[in-house]
Amino acid sequence: MRVIKMLTRGVVFGLLIFVAVQSQVRGPSTAALYEGARLIVGDGTAPVESGAFIVQDGRIRGIGKGGALTVPAGATRVDLAGKTVMPAWINVHVHIGYEGYTTWGAENYTPANVLDHLQREAFYGVGATQSVGSSPTDQAVQFQRDQQAGRFPAASRFFFMPGMAPPNGGPDAVLLKATSVLHAVHEVSTGDEARRAVRSMADRHLRSVKIWVDDRRGTYPKMTPEVYNAIIDEAHTHKMIVHAHATTLADQKAVVRAGADVLVHMVQGEKLDDEYLALLREKKPYWATVIGLGDRSEVCDNDPFVDQAVPDRVVAAIRATSEARPLAPSCGPRPANAAVREEMLANNFPKMIAAGVRLVLGTDAGIHAGHTFGSADHHELARWVQLGLTPAQAIVAATRTPAELLDIKDMGTLAAGKSADFVVLNANPLENIRNTRQIDRVYLRGIMLDRRALLARWKKASTSQ
After folding, report:
1. How far is 87 from 126, CA to CA, in rounded Å?
2. Are 72 and 56 in contact (CB under 8 A)?
3. C-beta of residue 43 within 8 angstroms of C-beta of residue 400
4. C-alpha 426: how far from its chain's center?
5. Residue 144 CB-density burial (10 A; 0-12 exposed, 13-18 middle, 19+ buried)
6. CATH superfamily of 30-87+414-464
7. Class of domain 90-406
């Protein structure tokens, strides 16, 4: 009954915030010329210095060197001299809806909270966000429809996929409690059950599915080869994409060999072998590293960029936690296995990249408050560069490549015809990847996001909790 009441409140919320109009979806009809900035297109090419681009009806109508564009009569001019502009980011792997910062669980899953999480992503420059395996299908489909119809305030575009696991298996212990209440994960035990479940998803025109192939160190039932092979085969029959959670070398080999399209997580307990690297060179899967989930929370670093969107009492609680906690927010000493983990990351990450995997941004945000929506994305890019990627490569993996994976044809790069989803920075991230944190403005479909109003709302809510 509690869940029914919660979902009913969510529907009411959806009706109450029908405040947006179609101009919010399309952007203003009056043309605007943005000029003088360094333009990072997002495809890995050299930036356009002193560039310019025209935005109208929420789309980029022209882009190039300053002075080379034909500017429509009456266009508004926006001076971005000294700034850097890049495409809004795309996060392919989060868990939307359950995080409440001072609470966590299924009771938080409402349209209001989903919207809040998407606005947090947008605040930090993320223009599209995909919830993977944990969003209840009916509610997620309805949210997508409402967002596409312009019924919500500006936020990151919402994407989702259902998940599949054995009964009592799949998500980690925290997420499992919440998803079980909402029956968000499809539980399957046989190949036939798996195929039927995939066909039901295809009938609803769902494009992707997540599988968990992980026994959580012997504490969970593990998806069998019969089941995941059936899922992958049936999904591909319906032109669906399969994301596979696998954390050991043997399991990653198995799912890649079976044809999984997207790998989630890194192998952190052992070094990759030549057999696996050869398999990666052959298959070239997409790969969401989600490194930051296992890192020490940046809340511990007293960085206003991270702290600003987190309630003060939550920040204080994380900083006051003195014991070491793997995969949980704390500012205690590093876990005993931290040095080994770093050694494995330093070995395995560049080898995966050299083997030709297609890196995409994913954070696993939404599991705990110390690894939060939006700021976690910036942490992930910084870790990639620390492990050997160039800033330009990291930016492509956060923009163009995830747009390709999600088949978002109007996002991912700055180009004529694309949606005007872009971030204005006060410093150049090609010189230092941490300059992605120097956000001046965020635009979604040609409209500047009111970041100040969002921050004021979050701080007000923080003081009232």
Report:
1. 9
2. yes
3. yes
4. 23
5. middle
6. Urease, subunit C, domain 1 (2.30.40.10)
7. alpha beta
| pLDDT of the chain, 465 residues: tens digit per residue | 444 344 444 444 444 344 444 445 567 788 999 999 999 999 999 999 999 999 999 999 999 998 899 999 999 999 999 999 999 999 999 999 999 998 999 999 999 999 999 999 999 999 999 999 999 999 999 999 999 999 999 999 999 999 999 999 999 888 999 999 999 999 999 999 999 999 999 999 999 999 999 998 899 999 999 999 999 999 999 999 999 999 999 999 999 999 999 999 999 999 999 999 999 999 999 999 999 988 888 998 889 999 999 999 989 988 887 565 555 566 877 777 888 999 999 999 999 999 999 999 999 999 988 889 999 999 999 999 999 999 999 999 999 999 999 999 999 999 999 999 999 999 999 999 999 999 999 999 999 999 999 999 998 887 665
- All residues at 6 or more sequence positions from 411 whose CB lies less than 8 Å from its CB, including other chains: 87, 88, 90, 127, 128, 157, 399, 403, 418, 419, 421
Q: Which pTM does this prediction carry?
A: 0.93
Q: Look at the block and give the residue holding tokens 């995939």.
A: 198
Q: Cα dist. 241→192, 261, 397 in Å? A: 19, 6, 18
Domain residue spans of the chain: 30-87+414-464, 90-406
Q: Give the residue among 218, 145, 254, 135 at the shortest CA–CA distance from 183.
A: 135
Token pair listed for 154: 């500006």
Neighbours of 304 (CB within 10 A): 7
- Token pair for 387: 């492990």
Instruction: Tell me the C-alpha distance between 128 and 94, whole Å.
Output: 11
